[in-house]
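An instance as discussed:

___
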Amino acid sequence: MEQEKKGKFVKKTASKSVLMGAAFLMATSSIGPGFLTQTTVFTQQLAASFGFVILISLILDIVAQVNVWRIIAVSGLRGQEIANKVLPGLGVLLAILIVIGGLAFNIGNVAGAGLGLNAMLGVDPIMGAIVSALFAIFIFIYKEAGKAMDKVAQIAGGVMILLMLFVAFKTSPPVGEAIVNTVWPKEISWFAIVTLVGGSVGGYITFAGGHRLLDAGIKGQESLPEVTKSSVTGILITGVMRIALFLAVLGVVSKGLVIDPANPPASVFQLAAGNIGYRMFGMIMWAAAITSIVGAAYTSVSFIRSFHPSIEKYHNWVIIAFIVISTTTFALVGKPVNVLILVGALNALILPLSLGIMLVAAHKKEIVGTYKHPRWLTVTGAIVVVIMGYLSINTFIEEIPKIFS
């Protein structure tokens, strides 16, 4: 009896660790080099009104993630498998879009890791990128790769949040003004909202946490309360990081200090805390990049695991190959700007497509069985699909001429 109780306790503790790990994997996957730059630039443009953008994007993020994670958990299937059941071949299309997007953005993540080590330790960016890639590869060589990934995501996420809160405190931002403008903004930017939502839950990030839970065996209707809580936790972690950076930048801007357009987030940290602040930025940039490298590689490969038994059997080695290709591309040719622009526009389209597929799947008995998806989630999810679909298509159309000009 005592042994049974002990076994249940160990299992419950392990489940909690996986749930928190999935939340941090999703959160840290979205907190990459682009996240830091976007937040800084939009705060410069909108000042205190950027608080409203963060609020709206968080609401849209939560709706998207709760819907997707619940359907993955209740069906016990990965995103591409669900899509193929909704319409044969749709899963293959979704997988192709996510793998291409994940690979292209991982080149940016590798570059960010190199720049992070450069700022933190003065290491050459290319050498820093290679060292960082080796660190990420070691996680997947390790026998308990899933547990290692969860732990790295949690530690890196915690360090980033603490350092960001410290810098926000140092800049003494006008918090009262930020709160007022979060509810009643002087200016609204829909472009900023769609960019934030796409960056927080677009592309592979939509499925990062849900697939992690599935691989850890957390699925079925009985797990839905924990799955829902984990998905919301992931978004809230992202939100805390975004708010802390927003306040740090707002503090710098409100003092009339000039942010260097060549590297906006690094400039904020340097203005806030001098050379130590710049080193701290390097640590945050590296932590953000390394967790995004791991998240992008893991989730992208999870979309092709079911396509062939060999990929399923050797999926950790396929993930390692994914990281090696990203790093080699950056080391040899740098960041391919045109590819990143095109894939950025495609990534914005993936969220409404993937969320739309999940909402259709939520009402198919052959996929979810006896499960009844809450009506409020279906309605709010459909609203997010329409809003993000319209805005992302417009963004995509605007980006095409830039790529071929």
